[in-house]
Model the fold of this input.
Amino acid sequence: MYKVVKEYLLNKIKTGELLPDDRVPSEKELMEMFQVSRITVRKAIDELVIEGYLYRLQGIGSFVRKKEEHEKASNLIGVFLSSASDFLSVGILRGIEQHISSLGFHAVVQFADENGSSEREKFQRLLELNVSGFIIFPHISTLKNESVKRLVVEKRPIVFVDRTVEGMDGYSVESDNRKGAYDVTKHLIEVHGYRRIAFVTWEKPKVSSVKDRYQGASLACSGTNANLTLIEVERGRVKQLCQELKNFDAIFACTDLLAVEIMSGLQMCGVQVPRDVAVVGFDDLPFSVFVQPSLTTVRQYPERMGEKAAAILLSLLSWGEIPIKKHYVPTKLIVRNSCGCVEHHHF
Done:
């Protein structure tokens, strides 16, 4: 039914009955005219805003956009993903695609690497394609990216996904990292009685997902006699760290990849997991169930993140702004063997 309302308005615009900057009939008028619900009218107007025929002024109404402005609006969304985690990136992309394709949008995807100059070129390419908005999976080097900073300052429609980086404010969709980390740490303390826990990370706590996981773990330790130690390690230097790690009761690795590297390093040092030291991760990557021992971890839902990021971006394109800036997707504790549990429990 909304298509009838949409066609009616489109026809008035195309025949010149409604001119640029003219106000279109209000939602109430359209509801009465077509005997339809507000949701139906809103859907018709939303699509015309997204397609560039109308613009909205909050609290006043919807107006006809100038023709040249309409031609400028594209149905392309720039998606900038980190190549740091293929599992997350591919899941996020799948969620974005599912949401936007039904609305006639297309994703133009670029994968970032740690090389700042090629990142700049890739961003330039997206800007030249005149994309309507951006979904960005940032990492530390994104902070140095002038193009991104400029987009943030110009208030272009951007949604950060999976994490935010200190110094860049905007709309974001992340896993509930704090709650996930709290749940897995509480499990280590309450079920197993571990007291000396190491939180090990490759990335600095400047990245929101790392900071939130560390804070969630700290919160689980507060008020108990458990201690949390933050350990930052460079990639490729995990083996050297294993002598130090064997003095802990349990290790909370910030990602599953790091957890598996720590487990293999400890086993090479003759330390048995979980008998001597327990290890848990975060992500629930597909391999976590197959490693020996199987990995206790926190499951993320990247497709949901992508879907939500796309929905928020399309709302921004339609409304110009939305009230809530930070959005979270729930996580789930997955208990396997590496924490010291004998059976597979799914909480």
